[in-house]
Batch of 3 targets.
Target 1
Amino acid sequence: MDIKENFVAEYADIATRMSATGGVLRALVLGTVIAGALDITAAILTWMTRGAPAIRVLQGVAGGLLGRDTFAGGGATAALGLLLHFMIMSVIVALYVAASHGLSLLTRHAVACGIAYGIAVYVVMSFVVVPLSAAGGARPPSPYMVLEGVIVHILCVGVPIALITRRFTAAS
């Protein structure tokens, strides 16, 4: 291989790696923004039907860090709750994207895997993360609330993350 061919081959390799990295970055950013927006919107709408204003829902997210004091913090703790929500969602997305590199099944069967991932995220968040947080475990959710939460996490978290991951990383 002469210098020109070697340069072209090396450039092609770098371009391929940059494209793969760009796909991962796009999957991380879009997955976080889309799933995060869908999930928090669903939470706000769900709790508004029960009489809770949006600010209270966002403060509730911050309650995982601040405990009951969160509800005395006004808009500042609501903003913190929104920030924390998207930070948590970025971790949820990153786990799926990272796992998809070792398990091509996650992108080949994105809808089925997204459904399973949505259920898994709901279970871990509701029965592990929240009870261990400063918000603590309140009374267990009713079967209706569990079903509602599972459906929201399938449609707003698991499936969108899986489809976005497939779209931007399957070829990488």
Target 2
Amino acid sequence: MIPGPVNLAVFFLCIVAGTAALLAAKSKLLSVGVPVWLAVTGLAGWIGLVRDFQREPPPMVVLLFAAVVLTVVTAVSRVGSLLVAEAGIAWLVGVQAFRIAVEIFLDWGHRVDLVPVQMTFEGRNWDIVSGVSAAGVAWLVTKGRAPRWLILLWNCVGLALLLNIVVIAILSMPTPMLRFHNRPANTFISYFPYIWLPAFLVQLALFGHLLVFRWLRQARTISRLPHFSA
């Protein structure tokens, strides 16, 4: 059973499909790996493997931890290196604009009593700033008007905002770590297809930030190389 209205689920699936297609278009390895990951985690959500929030440790927290580890490993691997080289910094920044759609989904979900208010921009989630600013910074990059310090500042702020909502989401789950006692609790993410919010969309945002850091490091290294005249 999928919680919430059907049109909300369809909107969410469109976000997932669109972002997965963006990755597949830029990386052959991810075009295989992402569908496999979506299938595994989607099945976990469908059959209810992560819905026991009273277990120690909560299965959803374990899944989130495993997803973060996989994301970091992928970002520092050859997959990340190829994506940084082939996609370019404008794409790496601009892809984060998908977070605007995620924030619209969360606000919509709150209005139908699926998502707790603190996980929306009406509450304590300001991640929409990351999505809107990503579009602006990416445009500046394409025009050659984005200095390295601006990209670094944007990336650090975006990562901080991502960490903020992840912590809020964890503290909104009905686990022993619960700190937000308003209703509804954050349980919708344990159901298909919304399990892909922490398992895929959050990881995509983290993955993107890590790749921008890699690009910044490479750009700094290149700028320090001596220039020889013929």
Target 3
Amino acid sequence: MSRIFLIFLLSAALHPGQAAGKSSPLRPEPASSSPLPPSGRDIVKKMHDRFTGKWYHTLTFTQTTEMYRNDSLRATQTWHEFIRFPDRFRMDFGPADSGNAVIFRGDSAYRYHNGQLRSTTINNNEGLIFLLGGMYFYPFDQTCRILNDSLHFDLTQTREDNWKDRPVYVIGKEGANQLWIDQQDLYLVRMIKADNQMDARFENWQPFGGGFCETRCDFYIKGKLIQSEIYNECKTDITLEDRIFDPSKLNRSW
């Protein structure tokens, strides 16, 4: 039996009306749908699996801070910064003996002028410390709860996009808080906060101690650049003593 005739018999058996000369309209094949992006939890799991137990514990650097108003540079300062993950952060403004500093511990910020404590406020930098390394020092489920419930990034809303010619995951829906994550290296390249219309961009990432460190940050409010930060002399996993982060007395940071 020829192969053509066999195909005809199989076709007649499966489609008897068509074999009898009755034509049936051609139906277009359904368009193939693009695969769904991973969920927010899946993206965070990738990040957690990649860096937990490998990320550096401490980071110090000298920062050139440029402040802008109405698109014009109005001031340039040198800051010295000290981080001990997951939740210790200190910034000294100017020389070490100036006594001008802020210490962040957990959810509190302690601000000093000329060595004297001037105010204690809520730590508005807590989210950044968490997102830029602190998240790898908490269990995965706790990390997701902090992201979703405390920092208000909706892990159920995701999409894929491109940022500066690199593919990214975007966590959070349009018009709400968003995290933009580099798909290859799994670090944060952009954070959007809807409440104050802030757009924070993290660039020039460099590998350090089993993780990465951004070496430039640009902060925009309502589309206007307000501050640029350039890191120099980055060092990781050096000992940072408890006294550096002790708010009861401002000690020299180095």
